[in-house]
Specification:
By secondary structure, this protein is mainly beta. The chain is built from one helix and ten strands. It has one domain.
Length: 118
Amino acid sequence: MGFVSTSAGGDTYFWDMIEQQAEGAGSYKISDKEFVNKSASMTSVVNIPGRDLEAFAVGTDKKIWNSNLQKTPFEVGVTISQLCTTHNGKALFAGVGEANTPGSVLIYKVSDDPKGFA
């Protein structure tokens, strides 16, 4: 049981308030699962339902990153400001955050394959 966070510095961290405390860890952060992308300021992150310690993250680099596939981002071509997923993880909603343009929502079908999108 936990959550994921991201920062303008490009860091994405997974947190577990229960398991880490039970193991006597000094921090609630799960260090071996962190994802760092210093080439972009990250704006949003969302857990992928049904996939333990895996998330999609977006930032100013116009890409959607899977935390487990850090070398192969999904090129979007626009800046995404917010992410949301359906409860079953089959669809990803992405809010476009381009300057001086009206906002829009992109919808992506997420593949059952851990590599990402269909």
